User: What shape does this take?
Amino acid sequence: MRKRFIAGNWKLNLTAAEGVALVQGLAKTLPTDGRSARAEVAVCPTALALSEVAKAAAGTAVGVGGQNCHWEEKGAFTGEVSASLLKAAGARYVIIGHSERRQFFGETDQTVNKRLKAALAQGLVPIVCVGETLPERDGGKLQEVLTRQVKGAIEGMQASQLESLVVAYEPVWAIGTGRTATSAQAQEAHAFIRGLLTQALGVLATRVRIQYGGSVKPDNAHELLSMPDVDGALVGGASLKLADFAAICAAAYSDTPAKAAP
Ligand code: PGA
Assistant: This one.
């Protein structure tokens, strides 16, 4: 069984105090009864707020993650944050290769691969983001782009190293635009990604969680999560609002059966 996983990507938003308040409010809404095993919830604050948010989240059902990590552990890399520093600050997860990093900060499939190795070496759960732009989709290149990004991310790695891998399918045209992929479009891309993972990792691919990201909101979360290969969500804008994020998490804990690994 794949446990659903909802992660909030706060991007460049929220002070430590605002993040602490949000996590404290969120933690109160998460189930503590038998339903708690159905899903996993995390938030990814800025590096500067991470430590305080992690302290506030300790002992609750909310995990904390970084938004990026450098591939070197330490050294002369001004402005960077390493996987080991994230871990020391209380992170359990790290987002890698978000489309905004690819678009604005020169992230490539090669640097995603290096960051992924560094994250795994520190025992962080990596959330590797992939997804096509609108011209790529319209040009019939969806599968080509996903193949390049997924294969590039895990290049040279063994299945045994990737047991904790989480992939986030985030069509770039759906991020922050209010234009969500339909559940059928999400399912098609997720199934394709799972096929790529099966080629590379064999049976482990049935255990890899694939999140959907791109304008996930309380009113579309349930339908997206009901698709067989949609195992969770990476949520940007709606994760900044307690009521919205709590409602999305509630959809993940709801009684729609979690998906059985085939
Ligand atoms: P959005 O962002 O939910 O605001 O579209 C998702 C993401 O970029 O991870």
Residues 9, 170, 175-176, 213-216, 234-238 surround 2-phosphoglycolic acid (CB under 6 Å). Confidence is low (pLDDT under 50) at residues 257-262. Residues 96 and 128 are 5 Å apart (CA to CA).
